[in-house]
Specification:
CATH topology: Rossmann fold
Largest sheet: 8 strands, parallel
Helix content: 40-55%
Number of helices: 14
Order of helices and strands: EEHEHEHEHEEEEEHHEHHEHHHEHHHE
Strand order of the largest sheet: 13-12-11-6-3-4-5-14
Strand content: 15-25%
CATH class: Alpha Beta
CATH architecture: 3-Layer(aba) Sandwich
Bound molecules: 1,4-dihydronicotinamide adenine dinucleotide
Shape: globular
Radius of gyration: 20 Å
Number of strands: 14
Distance between the termini: 28 Å
């Protein structure tokens, strides 16, 4: 099959197996070029196939030599359609990991469900006995509650007032004004049910009950704060409420894990181009500016650089964690630097469709977006027929 990008709004419905392999191996090579980490031994990553979760799996494996189990929800290819990017990423990750004799197994299915938690528990019991790090990196628009069966859908809306701002259609190159009506109470509750901490707590409670957490086990979930510019739609919007819930859950889990001398933490990460961030209004335009000003300063980072620092300089550093007054790890410090944010705030009102290419680094935004799906990867001939069917060596799937 000839595999080309098919972009619809903020998603790409195709992915390229060879291109994703190149992008994954670039991340692996980055980690290998850095100092090894005296880190975790047995790691569970929930949301392990793309973005921050994939980077966590790569750093754990190639930075710390850990055994990993990855859980995610991805689509396999058939004769007509390519697999999803996360499927190909995992196939490539496992091939490289296995070739270098690292243990890596993957579970495909709905992490919110009881079935997947049970399957994961079985695999840990059989292969690893106990785990000492659990990364929670899910980003999902929807959750079926495992007990009640209720379906929750998350929304990305402001709270209390209508919000009008600029946004970009990155591929059309159009800057437009967007007005988002405030969320209803039900929409706020729904978003908290999907992206808040309830499922994280269910995972940890379950693994603890099954005696699968090692002495000193750590769990980390990822969060975001960002600047004033995006507060109405992020920090103070529905997703921000969910992140508040995640933080409060983290405090609860931290107390529970103290029985094992363990800890639960939130890491506030930088805004990066991922499938999840592409879906948030206003944020892609902000990221295109961020890419420009951080590149100019030489401080630009993607998922892999961020997570390497999370492990090396925080979780497994001898000098301890870099936290804020709420106890959250902050690896977004370069994004939040005063000069960076002042430059962005000054440029923001000036951006128009006409000057988008010069005032922002929209080109880099597009390139990074394309690379999420294995396009724009160096050395890949996209005009060559490619077999879309690629196996993940260790996959077990429970699909509903
Ligand atoms: P992503 O879209 O790249 O990855 C989401 C992962 O969740 C994938 O592995 C996907 O397969 C998995 N997933 C989704 N629904 C699932 C389900 N029902 N069952 C099993 N797996 C499922 O997202 P990204 O951006 O890496 O986000 C991960 C976390 O990092 C989120 O909590 C997000 O809020 C946070 N974060 C993201 C930032 C960004 O700029 N992208 C910034 C700071 C934090």
């Amino acid at each position: 099959m000839l595999i080309q990008p098919k972009i619809r709004g903020f998603i790409c419905t195709t992915a390229h197996p060879k291109g994703t392999r190149k992008v994954v191996s670039d991340q692996i090579n980055y980690v290998k070029s850095k100092d090894p980490i005296k880190g975790p031994k047995n790691v569970l990553i929930i949301g392990a196939s793309t973005g921050y979760g994939l980077a966590s799996r790569i750093v754990a494996t190639f930075g710390a030599g850990a055994k990993t189990i990855g859980v995610f929800y991805e689509k396999e290819a058939d004769d007509k359609r390519t697999a999803s990017a996360g499927w190909y990423n995992t196939a490539a990750f496992e091939q490289i990991a296995h070739a270098e004799k690292h243990y890596a197994k993957s579970i495909n299915g709905d992490a919110f469900s009881t079935d997947i938690k049970q399957r994961t528990a079985e695999l840990i019991r059989e292969d690893l006995k106990q785990i000492d790090l659990i990364i929670y990196s899910l980003a999902s628009p929807r959750r079926v509650h495992p007990v009640t069966g209720q379906v929750y859908s998350s929304v990305l809306k402001p709270i209390g007032q209508t919000f009008t701002s600029k946004t970009v259609d990155a591929f059309r190159g159009e800057v437009k004004e967007i007005t988002i009506e405030p969320a209803t109470d039900e929409e706020i509750e729904n978003t908290i049910a999907v992206m808040g901490g309830e499922d994280w707590e269910m995972w940890i409670d379950f693994l603890m009950k099954e005696n699968l957490l090692a002495e000193g086990a750590t769990t980390v979930a990822y969060s975001y704060i960002g600047p004033e510019l995006t507060h109405a739609v992020y920090k103070e919007g529905t997703i921000g409420r969910a992140k508040d819930h995640l933080r409060i859950t983290g405090d609860k889990l931290d107390k529970k894990l103290k029985n094992l001398n363990g800890r639960a933490l939130l890491s506030v990460n930088k805004a990066v181009v991922t499938q999840a961030s592409a879906a948030i209004p206003v944020v892609p335009l902000y990221i295109s500016l961020l890419l420009k000003v951080m590149k100019e300063k030489g401080t630009s980072e993607g998922c892999i650089e961020q997570i390497y620092r999370l492990f090396k300089d925080n979780l497994y550093s001898t000098t301890g964690l870099h936290t804020d007054e709420l106890g959250q790890i902050r690896i977004d410090e370069f994004e939040m630097e005063k000069d960076i944010q002042e430059k962005i705030a000054a440029l923001w009102p000036k951006i128009t469709t006409e000057n988008l290419e010069t005032l922002t680094d929209i080109k880099e935004y597009r390139r990074e977006f394309n690379r999420l799906f294995g396009f724009d990867a160096e050395g890949i001939d996209y005009n060559q027929e490619t077999d879309p069917i690629v196996k993940i060596e260790s996959i077990s799937s429970i699909l509903t």
